[in-house]
Amino acid sequence: MAVLGIDIGGSGIKGAPVDPENGALLEKRIRIPTPVPGNPKQVMRVIQCIVKEFNWEGKIGVGFPGVVKRGVIETVANINSDWAGENLVTLIEDAMDCSAVVLNDADAAGLAEMRFGIGKEYSNDYVLFLTIGTGIGSAFFVKGELWPNSELGHLKVRGRDAEHRAGEGVRKEKELSWKEWGSRLREVLKLYDFLFNPDVIILGGGLSNKFERYETYLTKINAEVIPAKLRNQAGIIGAAIAADESTNIN
Ligand code: BGC
Prior knowledge:
The protein has two domains: 3-104 and 233-244, Nucleotidyltransferase, domain 5, CATH 3.30.420; 118-229, ATPase, nucleotide binding domain (Nucleotidyltransferase, domain 5, 2-Layer Sandwich). The longest helix has 19 residues, at 178-196. Strands 1, 2, 3, 4, 5 and 8 form a six-stranded mixed β-sheet that branches. The chain has a five-stranded mixed β-sheet with strand order 11-10-9-14-15. The protein contains eight helices and 15 strands. The protein is α/β, with parallel strands linked by helices. The chain binds beta-D-glucopyranose (BGC).
């Protein structure tokens, strides 16, 4: 049965009905800019708007950019701090006639990539999936099983959070060349590789389709480094998969 997948990001909130059996979007996705400052009330209004737009009454899966444990938002790096301690499952279920599952956005995108993207080929391996956007999100897959809420974007590299060294935000803000940014990303990936020794690192997020511009700078990393296939839809699809399976994956 179809599930409404919603991906809450720092700049946009996206949603579409998804067929969790094959990962297909059943209608054109909606994208609404994330309201500023993006507090729970404002974001809930956007979620309600997406639900209304699709006349939705079924299950909803939501990816959120922070640590999520049993529906509760535990950390807030790139979103309004009023979210800390809120139970997003309860907020949705109280406001709408829908049942909801909420998980970390990178965990959601990783689930989709493992099921329907390039990750399919690595289901017996140790996979580190990363989303590179404003923040860096991470998801570990141990022979296909997700270890949720890993938060590698906040590992310190040269005294700063990895996502502030090699995220898409800093690349744009400092107008870094592909070479400059690629070298920063390499340093971050080398640290992840050294600490966790994955077989493969899958790079997701908006820059996965520009992989050929910076892959040449990602040298001397033991793990294989490859781009994701599902691009920007992964978050929506993965949130829908999680809700479909109603897995308490966090
Ligand atoms: C957050 C993570 C999130 C990532 C990507 C980080 O700042 O702490 O939870 O997955 O950004 O959105």
